[in-house]
Every structure is written in structure tokens, then in C-alpha cells.
Write a structure and sequence with these properties.
Blueprint (H helix, E strand, L loop, with lengths): L2 H4 L8 H6 L2 H14 L4 H6 L4 H16 L4 H23 L5 H7 L1
Helix pairs in contact: 3-5, 3-6, 5-6
Length: 106
């Protein structure tokens, strides 16, 4: 478990950052901070961005569905989607423990 998780903190997020950064910058910062702590496979598989970042992305998705996205919002949503695809690719390449290996560690 990385130091942020042990302390109960979100990866790469400080209160000042969460208020001032657009969701996409905050999300990239969280991802970079997470990987800087050399996470193990299980942590990579369960990594999630902060609640604040998730709320912003959901807000952008609602605006997109309603047809009310500004051009800046559309760009932010596109970049968040690109980061999500990048994380999906990383997760798809992380070795998964064999069924027997998981029970040995429990």
C-alpha cells in the first residue's frame, strides 16, 4: 500500500489543488502521484481518482447528455476520457495473480 493510502489521503491531492485545478489536471496529478509510489498490482486494479474529480467528470457527462457543454468543458471531458483509456490500458497489462496465488496470500 502506498503512503497516501496508509494515511487515508487521496493520491496527489491537497485541498488547495482540488479547489483550483480543472478536473483533468487534478486527475493527471492524482494518477502521477499514485504511480510515483510504486503501487502493487492490486492497488493498480482498484485505483480510483478522488471523489471531487469523479463528481466533476460526472457533471461534465451530464452536461454532455443535456447538450450544454461549453467548448472548454468538451475539451476537459475529452482529456478525462483519454486518461481513462490510458488507465484501462495499464490495468490490462498488469499481471494478475493465479487463483492459487491469491489464496496463499490470504
Amino acid at each position: 500500500m502506498c503512503p497516501c493510502c496508509r494515511r487515508g489521503e487521496q493520491h496527489g491531492e491537497s485541498r488547495a489543488q482540488s479547489v483550483s485545478q480543472p478536473a483533468v489536471l487534478r486527475a493527471y496529478d492524482e494518477v502521477v502521484s499514485f504511480f510515483a509510489h510504486s503501487p502493487i498490482a492490486e492497488e493498480i486494479a482498484t485505483f480510483r481518482c478522488s471523489d471531487e474529480t469523479t463528481r466533476r467528470v460526472r457533471d461534465l457527462l451530464r452536461k454532455n447528455s443535456a447538450g450544454t457543454l461549453t467548448s472548454e468543458d468538451a475539451e476537459e471531458l475529452a482529456q478525462c476520457a483519454q486518461l481513462d483509456r490510458f488507465l484501462l490500458l495499464i490495468r490490462s497489462r498488469v499481471p494478475r495473480p493465479a487463483d492459487g496465488a491469491a489464496s496463499l496470500r490470504s
